[in-house]
Amino acid sequence: MSAEDDSRRPLNGILEGLAESVAREDSEELLEEARIAGQNPESIAQRLRITASAALKKFEQRKLEAAREAYQLRATKGPENKESIASTPDERKRQLSAILEGNPDIGAVLTTQHREFESLSDEDVQSALEDLAELGFLGNPPGTSRKE
User: Fold this and answer.
1) How many other CB atoms are found less than 10 A from the CB of residue 35?
2) pTM for the complete prediction?
């Protein structure tokens, strides 16, 4: 049990006691008590619905939020192997060519997309190398598909 669980134990006990007390009461008596206290039972119910709905939505979207955070972290960090991308356009084309020769499956996809390899702009080559770096293809021996 964590320290947070220990610190919440008294509060949870109080809340459980209140819940049991309310569950034993007659609903008409509870409504009358709320009205006497100057509360509007309909507005209380609406606030509870809104709170429950917000809590449910937050719970359902926790995986989405975690994925967003991971994506943002990756996007700001950039490809892990960016430093292994060649520095000049000619070197980058040679590097991409070597990767494609060593990994024919990738070469088939890229050459289908860009029939004439020589017509690729340096930006296209750079982008392809960054994508391959993110997938783990840079720095791997030919024939190995990616980091395991």
Assistant:
1) 11
2) 0.38
